[in-house]
Design a protein that fits this description.
The complex is a heterodimer of chains A (327) and B (258). With 327 residues, chain A is an alpha/beta fold. Chain A is built from 8 helices and 18 strands. Chain B is built from 6 helices and 15 strands. The chains are: A alpha/beta (327), B alpha/beta (258). The complex binds flavin-adenine dinucleotide. Chain A: Keywords: FAD, Flavoprotein.
Chain lengths: 327, 258
């Protein structure tokens, strides 16, 4: 694709049960700011069925145009082909999506089809002299890289929680229905989709998160983490060892291979503070840590560190917080 | 079942890598090179498949001579053959460049071993750059089916039955062989080498391959920096838990946490 005629930002917005996922809406709001500064537009792409309501939400979040493509089921290769066709037709200078499993599957393939490059885990996007600059973590987030993509369009999958969503009811936009014919390209066929999570865990949007690690000792003690979360009106998080011990389902994992979170308050109980965990919660407003080892690395990033046994400290915390909450 | 596992050598992921303020590069001197954690999960998955279904495991990596050590380690935990695509500056390649080289390597190795791979396994991402794209792009270039983030794969009647981990649960995927998978951490850990397997690996040869023609990287790093550091707050210690918690609560209420 030639550089000269590429403009506007295309955002693929993933939907589940006809509802747009937050990640996509957050990106629309960011894209709106970037595009408006250039005098350009944001084109949202939604694929599925019954998407009229979702299209309106996308407009509220920042889309100037919403392209709707009707498809019943998700197939990676079909979605990849649709997005590639739309990019060829609309010639955006930037294609974005949330870094979900779907986003991280299709965007690199779309970039490959368009002989350009794709950045993933993007934490920030800036517009520098007409080039988009992407900030990405390396080595688990202890070092950051700013990178530019030399091909056109630039393609990037954004980390959850990187941007904030703003829904403006008064915004207006155009809804376009596109028919995109793709040959039957499916090589890996999805035969069953299983939802294992009894509850939906919204760690990304939680204001308070109470997380437990291996130091909780056993499943029974891990209940203390849940109780403390309940007392603070928070959501339960966990480290990988706590998940692997099956004290809590994997949807609660915080860190490099779990969720990236940024609550106002993060309470870490029996967590050592390994890079892979810390990179997922370092953006928290206020960090409280309880650990019996006074040299635990978690204390280097905690606003308040309590050196002590979780089994003794956490029940007291619960008691004190309940007192405050009932005032 | 004939399997190929793609390996990347990375700095030990348990070491916190900081920025060398002099060179403005990540400070990697003295950090032990290891096989990328997710690649070790892929190799373990292959080793278990070999135990059940037979066949051989080949490992391949792109890099300089230093990578041979990591390939030896793979030979000690289940791999039968090891190939190194010699490249002195593999760090300068983007995922597409690596996938291009691996595509040629797949054909070269299949020619040398006079075999066809049924399954190509990659880690779902590397612990250094975590771009999570090589497996996808390799499959795309080879025009093979691909499934990412998988925790199980099993051959059955000429197809591969794959379990892919999703945010909410999992998907069952069926793909014709050959296919490519990228491996997430399953609920088992990679095996350790034994003294005997290490000795045997040391005797094995690591064969060298030449890379494909270079494609220019689409990604250019323009700045390397460290995230804003958090300053440690206060650490409270006391022999009496009641007392520490009371102190902590007063600090938190003063900070208007509650
Ligand atoms: C590729 C890769 C990806 C990873 N992704 C993630 C990820 O997404 N999320 C994640 O969390 N981890 C991840 N990990 C694992 C990570 O490296 C650490 O192993 C993990 O975060 C440690 O968890 P932990 O703090 O619960 O356990 P540990 O490191 O074992 O720490 C337990 C802590 O509890 C303290 N303790 C013990 N008993 C008590 C007590 N009675 N009272 C108070 N304190 C006590 C100990 O002092 C210790 O500090 C990943 C690893 C790899 C290789």
């Amino acid at each position: 694709m030639s550089h000269s005629d590429a403009k506007n930002i295309m955002v693929y917005v993933e939907t589940v049960s006809d509802t747009p996922l937050n990640g996509g809406l957050e990106i629309l709001t960011k894209a709106h700011k970037l595009a408006a500064a250039r005098g350009e537009e944001v084109i949202a792409v939604l694929i599925g069925s019954n998407l009229e309501h979702a299209a309106n939400t996308a407009i509220m979040a920042g889309a100037d145009k919403v392209i709707l493509v009707t498809k019943d089921n998700y197939e990676m290769e079909v979605y990849e082909a649709i997005l590639t066709r739309l990019a060829e037709k609309y010639k955006p200078s930037l294609i974005l999506s949330a870094g979900t499993l779907v986003g991280k599957d299709i965007l690199p393939l779309v970039a490959g089809n368009l002989t350009t490059g794709c950045a993933v885990d993007v934490m920030e996007i800036t517009d520098k002299d007409g080039n988009f600059v992407f900030t990405c973590p390396v080595y688990g987030g202890t070092v950051l890289n700013d990178l530019v993509i030399k091909g056109t369009p630039a393609v990037a999958a954004v980390r959850s929680g990187a941007f904030e969503k703003e829904l403006v009811v008064e915004r207006t936009g155009e809804i376009i229905k596109e028919q995109v014919g793709v040959e039957n390209t499916v090589r890996a066929k999805i035969v069953e989709v299983v939802n294992e999570m009894a509850e939906t865990v919204n760690l990304e949007e939680a204001q308070v998160i109470v997380s437990g690690g291996r130091g909780m000792g056993n499943k029974e003690n891990f209940r203390l983490v849940e109780e403390l979360a309940l007392a603070c009106h928070g959501v339960v998080g966990a480290t990988r060892p706590a998940i692997e011990a099956e004290w809590v389902p994997r949807s609660h994992q915080v860190g490099q291979s779990g969720k990236i979170v940024a609550p106002k308050l993060y309470i870490a109980c029996g967590i050592s503070g390994a890079t892979q965990h810390v990179s997922g919660m370092i953006g928290s407003g206020y960090i409280v840590a309880v650990n019996k080892d006074e040299d635990a690395p978690i204390f280097d990033i905690a606003d308040v560190g309590i050196v002590g046994d979780v089994v003794k400290v956490v029940p007291l915390l619960i008691e004190e917080i309940k007192k405050i909450q009932s005032l | 079942m004939e399997m190929l596992v793609c390996i990347k050598q990375v700095p030990d992921d348990s070491v916190e890598i900081s920025l060398d303020l002099g060179t403005k590069e990540p400070a990697l001197i003295g950090v032990t090179p290891v096989v990328n954690a997710f690649d070790t999960y892929a190799l373990e998955m292959a080793a278990r498949l070999k135990e059940t279904f037979g066949g051989e495991i080949t490992v391949v990596s792109v890099g300089n001579d230093e990578v041979k050590n990591s390939l030896k380690n793979c030979l000690a935990v289940g791999a039968d053959h090891a190939y190194l695509v010699k490249h002195e500056k593999s760090e300068s390649l983007d995922p597409c460049g690596i996938a291009n080289i691996l595509k040629k390597a797949v054909h070269d190795i299949e020619g040398e071993l006079e075999t066809k791979f049924d399954l190509i396994l990659c880690g779902k991402e590397s612990t250094d750059y975590a771009s999570s794209q090589v497996g996808l792009l390799l499959a795309s270039k080879l025009r093979l089916p691909v499934a990412t983030n998988i925790i199980k794969v099993e051959p059955m009647d000429g197809i591969m039955r794959i379990k892919q981990e999703t945010e909410e649960g999992y998907r069952s995927i069926e793909a014709k062989t050959p296919c490519v998978v990228t491996v997430q951490k399953p609920d088992y850990d990679p095996r350790y080498p034994t003294i005997k397997s290490k000795m045997a690996a040391r005797k094995k040869e690591i064969k060298e391959l030449s890379p494909s023609e270079e494609v220019s990287s689409m990604l250019e790093v323009i700045r390397v920096f460290e995230p804003a550091k958090r300053v440690a707050g206060i650490k409270l210690k006391a022999d009496n838990e009641q007392e520490v918690v009371a102190q902590a609560m007063s600090v938190m209420t003063a900070a208007k946490v509650f």
